[in-house]
Known about the structure:
This protein has 469 residues and is α/β, with parallel strands linked by helices. It has 4 helices and 36 strands.
Amino acid sequence: MDEEIKGYIKVLINEDSMQARICFSTTPGTDQKLSPVAFTLDNALMALSVAGVKAGVNNDMIMDMIESRQFDVFKAVAMGKPPLNGTSGFYTFHFNTEHDGKPKVLEDGSVDYHSIDGYEPVSKDALLATYTPATSGHFGYNVRGAVIPNVKGKEQPRLSGSGFHINENATEYYANVDGKVELNKGNTELVVSNVLEIKSDVDLTTGDVSFNGDVIVTGNVVSGSRITATGSVTVAGNVEGAIILSGGDITMKLGMQGGGRGIIKCGGNLYGKFFEQVRIDCKGDIHASSMMNCVVNCQGSMFVTGRHGILVGGTISCQGDIEATIIGNLAEVKTYLNIGITEQNINDMNNLERTLRDLQDKITKHTELQQKLELVKNPNNANELAAMKQQVELSLAELNRQQAETFQQLEQTKLILAAYSNSKIIVHKYLYPNVKINISGAYYSVTSTFVNLVVKNVGGEIKLYNEQM
């Protein structure tokens, strides 16, 4: 400054002691008893110290006031620092934790009762939850130098439950299995299960069921409903004209009255007391006490047994054995039984053999080309030749893989056909007229009533034997 200015340095501290203001005054106050001093940084700091300001002073702001001659005005030159409380730890869930169980309203205003939000599906290794740890925050202070304590955040306990695993830092939760995920006990318990239990009927109130895992229904399954499961399906009640699709076993503790609309597709074995007017596609065995007017494709064997086990009406295609107490009835309802090796089985084997021959031809040609490329010396374009060799090598590897896979499929098919070639029909009580039998291409039409017998294909002809033989 060109000239030294003197005056009075006044200090005001807020009630909460979080701010101190200073004023370079050229006129004394009415209660001013001090002598005037030079307006310098040191004198300002002295005034602040005398007033009790010990922290948060901004020297630059003081200098700016002096140099720009901001006199007779109070300005804040010292600020306290408020404390920052820590944040408590919290979980972020990466799935819908709220399901209202209500049907969806479509764009046209109609209601889709088949699609009801009842549970949360989950895939194996899916990220379910992320934990954000608590923070400590930091303490504060006022301009008088007093420390203002802060509150640290509180850590949350780990989620309890089952069916999941946690990363090393305990911050990420992952599903162990395909299935459903539930959040229980005030969002503190995480449960992942591959079993969906429906403790009611499957009807319009539940909508269609689609689940990655096993499904258990404690009630009935009404007409028009649909259950799709990658695992097994178990129904304790009756099943009407519904669609049941399962990657595993299907167990109906009562049975299914399909009414011509019922459909079953079973990746394992099928169990039930009775099946009536149902279309069935089963990769395993079928066990029932009654099978009436059904259309069946069974890759295993069929057992319709029990005291009154009856198989009557419809068309049954079974690659294994058919064992029943009674086949047909006194009314001579037309019943078709096709067992053993089918034309499709033969076509499948022929196609596999044809594929093997084609693959061998391609392998031979690729091997010859590979040998020719190895004979090339001093090529004009070495990079192009190297790329061609690599391509041929990759193609050969893929062809060999396909050949090995096809050969394995063919061997398995031959083993299955060998087993199917001995398929038979076993009747423990009565075989009634009008039952049409086809065993591996040999046909027989039953015109009389037989008791206790075994039906086989022997040398291309159907033979009937006493069951005790």
